[in-house]
## 1
Amino acid sequence: MGSSEKTFRIGLVAPGGRMAESVAAQAKAVARKTYGDKVELKFHPQCFLSSGHFAGDDRQRTQALVEIGNDREIDAVWFARGGYGACRVAEEAIPQLGDAARRKAWLGYSDAGFLLAGLFKAGFKHVAHGPMPVDLVREDEGAAMKRGLAWLVDRDPRALEEGLGGKPSLAFNLTILSQLLGTPLEPDLSGRVLLLEDVGEYMYRIDRYFFHVTSNPNVRRCAGIRLGRCSAVPKNDPDFGMDEEEVARFWCERSGIPYLGRADIGHDSDNKVVPFG
Amino acid sequence: MGSSEKTFRIGLVAPGGRMAESVAAQAKAVARKTYGDKVELKFHPQCFLSSGHFAGDDRQRTQALVEIGNDREIDAVWFARGGYGACRVAEEAIPQLGDAARRKAWLGYSDAGFLLAGLFKAGFKHVAHGPMPVDLVREDEGAAMKRGLAWLVDRDPRALEEGLGGKPSLAFNLTILSQLLGTPLEPDLSGRVLLLEDVGEYMYRIDRYFFHVTSNPNVRRCAGIRLGRCSAVPKNDPDFGMDEEEVARFWCERSGIPYLGRADIGHDSDNKVVPFG
């Protein structure tokens, strides 16, 4: 094995949107500065492909995901970024993933939630919702990205969302959860705490997603909902009349789901890691 | 009965957004000019209330809907407009509707689709997707609104979507259908042709809605999908790479649902009536 024993190799794929090569280079620099030779980021070339909206066509994104997932030289899979497109590859890719893929950690959020859900449903044990390399665009000196790295490399407990308290939890972008309910990617939510965040959605849409999600029989069996941050909410005209926490409380009360307060997740630098369990 | 025998009374409620009084006045003028004393539009005062995003709070919108629905002096219920909010009142209102409500025709589209779905699921026989008075804002000399009226008053066959061919059909806004799947408002879609339209959604969202909708087991039992117009689609950056018909064909093929071509419905003046069956 030699020096490969010392290097923790993280494979990166982009199941949705294309990754800018400049951000990938920046991510490698951050990893090198933080971990030296101990950690290597291996961006699959697929990350930089372009096919309309996506980082390569469905087949290319599927193949890259399966290749990185099954590669025995790679210790963890990190989704480079979200965007949109994971729902187009998840059902094809997941059944092709073998034991090596099951032993790896899988980390990402936003659109990658389609894959996190499907992997968790398929019995993968090391799936987590948390920061991605693309978070470097937040110009936060790599705070979010380093948190993701710290969890992937060392399972650093400081990276974790503080309120998890050992309770089985799942975290999703609210929109993505809504869009995977009723599909083959929908995991069993019974008895699990659900942490939900969103970005760039009008309040009326947040309200509509909460109607949809809290009306679902599977969601109604969850142990409760915690609300992450809803950021970059466009101005509602007229004013919606409720903020996101009032909306979450309203729908939880109406559907009989315990509302368990706020969660420290969101499309921002403070986004913490939530391992699925 | 006297003169009331001659007058067809249409009750109007606004289960989502507020109706402008000026548009209501315009709608009355159009009805009077077209039908004289034969038709009367009765806007419930609830249409003009304002509570944040909505035309009155949930209780006010629910009560107005139930009142107009159960009123034996009223022959049909017309949703004055969409917006957002029908999903907040449907489950509370529908069980309160009695025999008089079941005998009436119910017409609307867009956000009102939540109610159309719930009413159809509850066994209402005269539910239809089609133009509303708010369509007067299209400045089409009332073409869309008059089509809705012609169906409500005379069941004018010229108001109907031309391709229905006697096949049991349902029509929805794609977003609204996505957001009611898995909720108590979801009707049985087995063997029915599904006509879908949308407005103001990015192509990547239309694609995501199609993933969600065509992955649903109930939708997969439908007789096929026909695509209405997707209008006011914001520019996708980068270009999505597929238009809405390619997207519809893609997901229909992938999910084994027959794609049955285009449908003459949409958020526009040409929007035709689709009775639910």
Note: Chain A touches chain B through 32 residues (CB under 8 Å).
## 2
Amino acid sequence: MPAGCAPFSQAEYDRRIAKTRAAMAEAGLDAIFVTDPSNQAWLTGYDGWSFYVHQGVILRMEGEPEWWGRSMDALGGQRTCWMAAENIHGYSDHYIQSTVYHPMQDLAEHFTRMGLASARIGVEMENYYYSAKANAVLTEEMPNATLVDATALVNWQRLVKSEDEIAFIRKAARISEKVVQVAIDRAEPGVRKNDLVADIMHAGITGVGDDWGDYPAIVPLTPSGLDATAAHLTWNGEPMKKGEATFFELSGCYRRYHAPLCRSVFLGTPPAEMLDAEKAQIEGIEAGLEAARAGNRAGDIARAFLDVLSKYGIKREGRCGYPIGLSYPPDWGERTASIRTEDETILEPGMTFHFMPALWMETWGLETTETILIRESGSAEPLCNMERKLFVKP
Amino acid sequence: MPAGCAPFSQAEYDRRIAKTRAAMAEAGLDAIFVTDPSNQAWLTGYDGWSFYVHQGVILRMEGEPEWWGRSMDALGGQRTCWMAAENIHGYSDHYIQSTVYHPMQDLAEHFTRMGLASARIGVEMENYYYSAKANAVLTEEMPNATLVDATALVNWQRLVKSEDEIAFIRKAARISEKVVQVAIDRAEPGVRKNDLVADIMHAGITGVGDDWGDYPAIVPLTPSGLDATAAHLTWNGEPMKKGEATFFELSGCYRRYHAPLCRSVFLGTPPAEMLDAEKAQIEGIEAGLEAARAGNRAGDIARAFLDVLSKYGIKREGRCGYPIGLSYPPDWGERTASIRTEDETILEPGMTFHFMPALWMETWGLETTETILIRESGSAEPLCNMERKLFVKP
């Protein structure tokens, strides 16, 4: 791929940069250093599994963004970013995981060459890929600069999706339907969980038609029985058992865009309390979808859902969802708004959330969720088409 | 899994903790707060895809370690850690990805309850899962404590593997052989790369016999042609082409233990310069294996390899490998020693490295690598059994 092979049009990237610069101006920043791989990809198209070493995008108020990272990954930058090769910068390998050198020493020199030695530079203080040490070294190496916390400044610009992005999420949703269907079809007593996950992954990476599958930012979460009382266990080699519920927390991924979709399967005859909870959960989802409309708040979705649960005598704490779209491991959420009662974010058309009204109970767990799109008017559109119920296989 | 279902014996965990405490004593620490998921698993057995929120293991000089994390993940802690339930602590969901609260506020209170308000506490300043913000909040909330950089303190204790760990890595190696064989067998002109990756993943998660496959810490890296000049591109939906080399950077994973193995495939007739480079690379690997013996230094492996390359007139910069074993995304390396000329780490029996003498050239890339075990005497043992060559499919 020559420069220009990033997945979106130049107009789309220009739109994103203009939006980001408006937020930078409001924060009084001369530049931002963007370490979140999702933000890097959103601004420049950069794509590669290289985020385990220090790298980032530098955006000033004018000119093209610059990509900075390990020398061997600068070649990947040239092949995936839309910018000119002169705006892709590599640092030497002796900085990599060294006990003596730190890549932020190179970045400080680069900032100085860019005329940013005394600038106000936004950094993502709360990010997996901007370590406490990185911040300490950069602060020390740039005594005249002011590093300002710009956590999620770019993430917030991603909250309302463009038509092009929604098209990508719809493709991911087709893949999500496929992988969840595979999980439901394959779940049987005696099937080893890892064999089932192998089929899920195969289906997800194969994709649907010409829409090839990318890797989701979270691996399949597929716990059964008591393991399903915990939210984030993955899988093991144990055979599935009669009398247990298993939840499948999965997402298709199309060119880094996600559409998470969870369903649960019970092998055998579910206990009455699980069926009662299922009823409450599904009615609660419907209430949540009704509340998920432009002009309402993110918290309204949670309240609508929780009110139904209360009616059924079910107490639930914690978040009920988060925005989704472009993402890299370890999280497919965007880490801005949350679907929880105290969140005051006003819903706008084009926002996409994983509405995640899962129930983790004392002895079992039940996940039935939807990726939803806030519309111009009316209730939210669930982007996946998958029967909303506990799948029972007697 | 009840408490005690961690994958290793109590004696093994006790050994690890004793080793870690010796390093803590040397550093004058009262406690460490371990955020690296690999270090958490190594000390306690904790396993789950929950590292995208703040969590960690607290180890003092006496008593059981404590696991601290999100409430819903504390249930996962009870199901995967070997410690008593009273040593698994959960914080409330209102701290999660909040713009108002930070989980380190809860951790500071917990430290205080533990009597650590004025302690010297080691933190992993250079880690994906200890953000700049986490460090800033913890520092502010604990004015009387001294936070000390203990980056890689635990990682260094992991460098020499126990017999039990080596047994796990050998199982991973069987899976690695299988996935690389699938890649070689399936590579043909016209095969979409994602379809090939789907088969690789299926084989890896299926595992070998009773040894079920876990997710590797890095997804398959499978670039072809010019994309293979960059080190860390993943895949897309393009069909493979005649006249191109593709490298496969893969690893099997058995219960979070890795044994990376890379091989390259050329479809058609390789150019002479690639065959010359292959010869140099393979002779260089043999020289590296000879140098990889107890008492030598990590740098000696790199020197032996690079000397052979020089003889053939090939200039190569950068690292040639790193220690491997237990790991979580985004990196399967241990981030301590490196196989590079300046590294003075003395090799000891039981160390395991991914010896990674890849060549990324101007118009193509060639990866032929080995996971190696340093033995009591003699040259290193390659843990995978896979012909060491460029695989040519005319």
Note: Chain A touches chain B through 84 residues (CB under 8 Å).
